[in-house]
Design a protein that fits this description.
With about 200 residues, the protein is mostly beta strands. It is built from two helices and 13 strands. Belongs to the dTDP-4-dehydrorhamnose 3,5-epimerase family.
Length: about 200
């Protein structure tokens, strides 16, 4: 398993080892021991799966009170996945990074994205449909459910909307009116740190 740095400290791309033969391939998408050895969390409490159609844009979501770290994998289709650092004491506060996630990369590698607690998360579906599978470090907590506006000009995410060929992004009513970063209720400054992640 390879652990790759990204433009955001603590957000990591993970490449599990693929074992190939004439029949296809096999990979350990999650192995608690391997994750611990790489300094990643190994205690996930919930698996979520979603299916979305082309043009659906979800985000930027996070939780207060019971923050969730997310291990994200695209199991069908193609998404543009985005993480935004919402930790007010972080040097990367307000910065974002985007990643093209597919079942396999163009180089034939399996990639997953680790997004720690304290980050907003969102994605845009670029294929006809896409399925996302993600593990979380905490249970869903409806009272703590929050979002920052996906098109906040202060964050200025470069969503690849041109790849939708004129289709307008499909955004939920809740996400459409989510607050901007400067007025959002953000994780507390004393939110759990991710120092266990190797820089």
């Amino acid at each position: 398993m390879l652990l790759l740095d990204t433009p955001l400290r603590d957000v990591k791309l993970i490449e599990p080892t693929l074992h190939r033969d004439g029949r296809g391939w096999f990979a350990e998408a999650f192995n608690a021991r391997s994750f611990r050895e790489q300094g990643l969390p190994s205690d996930f409490v919930q698996d979520n799966q979603s299916m979305s159609q082309r043009g659906v844009l979800r985000g930027l979501h996070y939780q207060l009170g019971q923050p969730q770290g997310k291990l994200v994998r695209c199991v069908s289709g193609h998404i543009w996945d985005v993480a935004v650092d919402l930790r007010r004491t972080s040097p990367d506060f307000g910065k974002w990074a985007g990643f093209h996630l597919r079942p396999l990369t163009s180089e034939g590698k399996l990639q997953m994205l680790w997004i720690p607690e304290g980050f907003g998360h969102g994605f845009l579906v670029l294929s006809e449909t896409a399925e996302l599978l993600y593990k979380t470090t905490n249970h869903y907590f409806p009272q703590g459910d929050r979002a920052v506006r996906w098109n906040d000009p202060e964050i200025a995410i470069e969503w690849p909307l041109a790849e939708l060929d004129g289709l307008e992004p499909i955004v939920s009513a809740k996400d459409t009116v989510a607050p901007f970063l400067n007025s959002a209720e953000l994780p507390p400054a004393e939110a759990p740190s991710q120092e266990r992640i190797h820089a």
